[in-house]
Amino acid sequence: MDELRSHLSGSWQSGTGEPQILYNPATEEAVATCCATGLDLEAGLDFARREGGSALRKLSLAQRGQLLQTLASTIHEHREALIELAISNGGNTRSDAKFDIDGASATLSYYAGLAAAKGDAMVHEDGEMLQLGQSRRFVGRHAWLPRNGVAVLINAFNFPAWGFGEKAACALLAGMPIVVKPATSTACVAARLVEIAVDKMPAGTLSSVVGSAHVLPTLLGYQDVISFTGSSQTAGRLRALPQVASGAVRLNVEADSLNAAVLGPDIEAGSDTYNMFLRDVSREMTQKAGQKCTAIRRVFTSSAIRERVRDDLVERLGAVRVGNPAAAGVKMGPVATAQQRGDVLAGIEVLASQTRKVFGSEHAELVGTQDGKGYFVPITLLESDTPDVPGVHDDEVFGPVATLMGGVDDAATAGTWVAKGQGGLVCSIYTDDRSYAGAMLAEVGPHHGRVMFASTKIADQAPSPGTVLPSMNHGGPGRAGGGEELGGWYGTGLYAQRVAVQGDRGMLDAMLGKATS
Length: 517
What we know:
36% of the residues lie in helices and 22% in strands. The chain is built from 15 helices and 24 strands. Helix 3 crosses helix 4 (94-116), helix 3 packs antiparallel against helix 6 and helix 9 crosses helix 10. The longest helix is centred in the N-terminal third of the chain and has 23 residues, at 94-116.
């Protein structure tokens, strides 16, 4: 059984306490151990700030981009081994594992490309040079400068590779060293990523802590950053820390999200847009066993078409083979942990008490499993005639579960009920009616970080709405955490200080000319 070690102060280190055990969620066999107890975290953070920060700030943006491309290439080089780890420790099917790992390398490559266009620039410019007085000599310009701290990247259990890639790309390009803190239960992939990459990075720029380390955020100061993906409960505890609440440690949160899919009243059964809608809902319910922050949880349709949608979704969901992801033909594996399984099953019971279960446990047939082992949850589709179901809009069940609701016959009604989710990462609207689309953007836009409009013209081109693209914003208001990640250069702003630089034009040109051109 492997021991997953942490990398701090430029060396591999093991904890001194009782080890935590990581399991294969399909077989419940132990696959690895880890421990962070006894590690000198404060020294590790100081080393990263001092050595890693200094090294990155000496590099141009293009040179930092080269580091990102090295990371991307390294991940791709070890792709097959990482996929096997994701299957054995994450319960991922091969397709799900590729989605995570290829997402990491693609995001890093995208940001490497952005950086390459900057050439010798040392800082990222923001806007044009502005004349600030009557004389053309007195000017000002904004520039993004690296914060002189360390970025602690706290990732969720469901995307150990992609979560690493999207945060690391923005932080390293901005010029901040990173400490990766993966969720313990599925840490094998993230630990291996650091292992294969750390020797290709300047000392101190890439560190990791594997295992429980609740004290880590308490050791940070105002130049440091926490980028967190996980539950709203953990986010609340981070927000309450004195270091964050009054010490000005910068915190970005991506948390829960009751993402919605709305089928426009103009869409007829059997059309290209209708088929896209069915494909996306079924995929988002089952990919990664529904353990995606962007998965579709609420499905809204008009009353006239709800029953047809229900029957078509049940047919599609019934074709998904569930079981051990190492077995041939399996399209959905287990959830990540026993605790997660218990939480999802309890959540299903709560929702089922307010709705009708139209697809669920009675349809479950597990492939390649034995002795009742594994943290499996049945694909579950619930139904309600109307969207007036309080629990559906209040509680996220983080598994292969969605609720289909009718009675949404116009944009105003749809917007009202979608907003009951209290803030989301993504809302997808399926319509060919431009007037309806415009009304829906006004209705749901303020409540989401991203809105996808699916229509006939992109039915065979667009990825499903749960796919996070590095060029677009990832985050959302309210329940979703209020954070923002990615979105091209915008994503680097979390890790940099936007400075207004004012003075004589010649002096600013000398300081910033090549750096900000």
